[in-house]
């Protein structure tokens, strides 16, 4: 790969990726903007990328929508950089299959991590190679710390409230030198919006996307009904002693730690503590019943050298995107899985979610939670 300063910038039409493109251009990089057509609005986004924008059209909003495509194209035009739309709809269908399959196994999926690993930082790298581009950039809140001899480390954003390093743990270590995350160096989201406003970007006050792009009406049960209706088979809701308290709508419709929507008047707060697809039961209990001392993570990807086998190493362990990393230890098993134990018990350790290991701000690696302990 030639060192030519050419950057493929993933432009989603949001304020973060737009500011990232502007900052890189100011820093002297040769930017090429791309919009990835994926998710539920891919065909609509394709039309928006290729036809002149019609202000009278009513467009869906949300990740990868036609409105996003129009915004991304407009920013690229303002910067006078080449702009292309890439159709990853077929590949993205595999992400949806993964999403549904995980629920069928009573696991709670994280499609954003899978999309990052397989598409945004997989196929996008392949496209960069086709375009002879040295780097790939996005608007993620994370940092790549570059040391001597080409050593690179993935680290948390300076803006810890927006940090997205958790969802990037699946990046291949060998590819880290090729990634740029400009907004990860900015400590305040308000500053990002201020930069966009000063540059005259119309997306400076655009709300952040909060939904899963392929889930209709932000209700994943509708997707399950459409793709795998057999998963929504009624069964028993039981307490920790096995006493039947009521009926559920299908194990796949519930997640560990869920409190709302149980339809049971217990006279006290109750939470989903276990899901069992074999006997089709949902177990509920108190908040104390959600506490776990540790977990086992599988399919682990290391971004730093892994610890010596069967030796406990201190680490901070993050078990979901909104979780503050908890102090603890990790141990690499001979089978490649990682055992983690917390200094203090943690709530709602959920199979199917990611466990990401940190040393300070640096990501050591991460894997998928197989079970809580």
Strands of the biggest beta sheet: in what spatial order?
Answer: 12-15-14-13-16-17
Order of helices and strands: EHEHHEHHEEEEHHEEEEEEEEEE
| Beta-strand content bin | 25-35%
Strands, count = 17
Multimeric state: single chain
Query: Kindly state the mean pLDDT as a whole number?
Result: 89
> What is the radius of gyration?
22 Å
SS-based class: alpha/beta
Helix content: 10-25%
End-to-end separation in angstroms reads 45 Å
List the uncertain runs.
41-62
Biggest sheet, in brief?
6 strands, antiparallel, barrel
Shape: globular
What does it look like?
This protein is an alpha/beta fold and about 375 residues long. Helices cover about 25% and strands about 30% of the residues. Strands 12-15-14-13-16-17 form a six-stranded antiparallel beta barrel. Strands 3-2-1-4-7 form a five-stranded parallel β-sheet, sandwiched between helices. Strands 9-8-11-10 form a four-stranded mixed β-sheet, with no helix packed on it. Helix 1 (about 15-25) packs across helix 6 (about 190-200). The protein starts with 5 loop residues before the first strand and ends with a strand.
Question: In summary, what is this structure?
Answer:
The protein has helices spanning 15-26, 42-50, 66-79, 89-104, 111-130, 189-198, 220-227, and strands at 6-10, 30-37, 83-87, 135-137, 142-146, 152-156, 179-180, 235-238, 244-248, 271-276, 281-285, 291-302, 313-318, 326-332, 338-347, 354-359, 362-372. The chain is of the alpha/beta class and 373 residues long. Strand 8 (235-238) and strand 9 form a beta hairpin.
